[in-house]
Amino acid sequence: MTSEIAATAARLVVEEGLEYGPAKRRAVAQLGMGRAPLPGNDVLEDAVREYIELFCGDTQPEELRALRVLALTWMERMAHFRPHLCGAVWFGTATRLSDISIQMFCDDPKSAEIALIDHRVPYEPTTITGFRGDAVEALSFASRSPELDVVVGVHLMVYDLDDLRGALKPDSKGRTPRGDIAAVRRLLQDTAP
């Protein structure tokens, strides 16, 4: 059951751009499995990678690169706030339907909003659950990707500077869960056309 849910959720993540949580819940509903146990995020990520390899192998690498270029553009604009790319764009499972998630570690959280205002970027502030389980502010806006010719959602999560300590500890697969500007530049160099 878990693998069937993961495969269905992976399709929803790739084809509709859903986040993992909503994709898993919708997959259970679509399959009519009621209260079936949901697969873990690691299992779903593996299923997403498999789906991309099978059905999007010819287009996804270029889409991922374009999203990383756009992410780097925003990271450089917000460099003062120690931005770190995370999520699907960082881990390499993003497609043109994926949003860009950037975590920023600030001395003064309000200064990030002021920077967006200075860049004349209309944004929507919301509160989300951060990587440590506490509430953090997210500044969300749309940005056009010239390479993809689509508008992409960009989410800047604003953390306190102290949260950077321990934020780069490897995840359960031994990977760094986020990367700074230099790390994103290296990813782009490694995948240069």
TrEMBL record:
<protein>
    <recommendedName>
        <fullName>Nucleotidyltransferase</fullName>
    </recommendedName>
</protein>
